[in-house]
Specification:
Layout (H helix, E strand, L loop, with lengths): L13 E10 L2 E11 L4 E5 L6 H9 L5 E7 L2 E2 L9 E4 L11 H11 L4 H14 L15 H13 L5 E4 L8 H16 L3 E6 L10 E6 L2 E6 L1 H8 L4 H12 L5
Parallel strand pairs: 3-8, 3-9, 6-7, 7-8
Antiparallel strand pairs: 1-2, 1-4, 4-5, 9-10
This protein binds adenosine-5'-triphosphate (ATP).
The site of adenosine-5'-triphosphate has 13 residues, from strand 2 and helix 1.
Keywords: ATP-binding, Nucleotide-binding
Protein name: ABC transporter ATP-binding protein
Organism: Xylanimonas allomyrinae
């Protein structure tokens, strides 16, 4: 497992300066400056279409037409050396429905270059991390939606990446599963992983250590849940977000 370095003076896991991304001839992200601190659960929140996936794709190095500075774990985003250090879970499940949980994870451990005992240990550790013990032999196609999401997460975990980039991992899950997943994210952060987790559900903001609030491709706030509520005087994250948007627009509400 990744170990936390001592002290607080740790370089950010992701450093973004002046990031602009154009897709289909349209500027989707414009001049973003932000840091993702190491060892924390950082929420990337914003409405549908605000650019969360585009930013995540840029961080993991699969996005074209990216301008500006984008460093991930000290390397330029997309560097070949980052392939094993960064895990990415997209919104679409990336696991095979006709294989069992264990077979899926064996496939991903092999892709991560882990063979023999190291591969078996990685599969066991990933299954434990996502609490899927007892489901090893079950076909993924017969799992519940929440269990399937956790297999995708386990697949991203097998190489023990330092940075996990998770695109809307809790979408469509019931409140209990959502809570369990957020608890798991914090457990992973305590082990030294950094998690960048997107959501368009504002009440998930309170579950993050830090928050990046995006709207229409610009950063509305880089804050903590407590500071967000204190700064806006709003009773919850959703109303705080609306207050910030009104402020940015020069509104009076
Ligand atoms: N190839 C493309 N050409 C033009 N516009 C695009 C292209 N891909 C994405 N977009 C636009 O970029 C904007 C940001 O999309 P993105 O998927 O990053 O948003 P998001 O915040 O992740 O949304 P959601 O929460 O719905 O997943 C959207 O308005 C989308 O329509």
């Amino acid at each position: 497992m990744v170990n936390k370095p001592p002290g607080d003076a740790v370089a950010p896991a992701v450093r973004v300066r002046g990031l602009t991304v154009v897709r289909g001839g349209i500027t989707i992200l414009e001049g973003l400056d932000l840091d993702v601190p190491a060892g924390q659960v950082v929420g990337l929140l914003g409405p549908s279409g605000s650019g969360k996936t585009t930013l995540m794709r840029s961080v993991v190095g699969v996005q074209a037409n990216v301008a500006g500075e984008l460093r991930v774990l000290g390397e330029p985003a997309g560097s070949p050396s980052l392939r094993r250090r960064v895990g990415y879970v997209t919104q679409a499940a990336s696991v095979y429905a006709d294989l069992s949980v264990a077979e899926n994870l064996q496939h991903f451990t092999a892709l991560a270059g882990l063979r023999g005992a190291a591969g078996r240990d990685a599969v066991t550790a990933a299954i434990d991390a996502v609490d899927l013990g007892g489901h090893e032999r079950q076909q993924v196609g017969s799992l519940s939606g929440g269990e399937r999401s956790r297999v995708s997460l386990a697949a991203a975990l097998v190489g023990d990446p330092e940075l996990l980039v998770l695109d809307e991992p809790t979408v469509g899950l019931d409140p209990v599963l959502r809570r369990d997943l957020w608890e798991m994210f914090h457990r992973l952060a305590r082990q030294g992983h950094t998690l960048l987790v997107s959501s368009h559900v504002m009440d998930e903001a309170t579950r993050c250590d830090r928050l990046l609030l995006l709207r229409a491709g610009t950063l509305v706030a880089d804050t903590t849940p407590d500071a967000l509520l204190a700064d806006t005087g709003a009773p919850d994250a959703e109303r705080a977000f609306l207050t910030l948007i009104d402020r940015a627009a020069g509104g009076t509400r």
